[in-house]
């Protein structure tokens, strides 16, 4: 479903979010106070405008209050990021996601009602470390402290076995959510669906179960 996003601050993080959302077919309003930055993004956003994100009247005149989702990606400067977040929440943007610089910044953002606080470097660092931790893990998404979704490559050991044969849920306590085979993704695998070597298994579970499945099941 097409959604409306406003992205404020178009540094490396903000512009990546903007380009990807636009590529996915969403409506994206990109805002930055630097004219050159706005010019650069203009082919990769529905609208790109120069505005000061700490000016409430400017944000209102751009119709920002009508957006359900805002991403505040103002870089190093904490004060404008906080002020902008405050304005967005006050004018009624439903979900405001904010890139935080540090813990103090995070605490203030929590107090003023930011809906999600993002630490891109830390989150990416953890993700990469989890991929490096194992030769088998292709990708990793942390759901909470103890639960994750990981992508694993199916080895010869499981090749030509159906999900019911493998019985991963009973044996390891985790669930195969999807099976990717080249471009095709089987998002609701049936018990009789067979796995082939090289398939990518998308598996959800608690971290201990996932580790056991990765080490013993594959
Ligand atoms: P990153 O770490 O993601 O690369 P940067 O610090 O490079 O972030 O970029 C932040 C962006 O936010 C810059 O393009 C800057 O022009 C923009 N920005 C900073 N202050 C404001 C503001 N008050 N209004 C709008 N954009 C701003």
From TrEMBL:
Biological processes per GO annotation: potassium ion transport
Residues annotated as domain RCK C-terminal: 135-218
Ranges in a coiled coil: none
InterPro entries noted in UniProt: NAD(P)-bd_dom_sf, RCK_C, RCK_C_sf, RCK_N, Trk_Ktr_HKT_K-transport
Recorded GO MF terms: monoatomic cation transmembrane transporter activity
Gene3D superfamilies associated with the record: NAD(P)-binding Rossmann-like Domain, Regulator of K+ conductance, C-terminal domain
PANTHER family attached to this UniProt entry: KTR SYSTEM POTASSIUM UPTAKE PROTEIN C, POTASSIUM CHANNEL PROTEIN 2-RELATED-RELATED
Domain of life: Bacteria
Protein name: Trk system potassium uptake protein TrkA
Regions crossing the membrane: none
RCK N-terminal domain: residues covered: 2-118
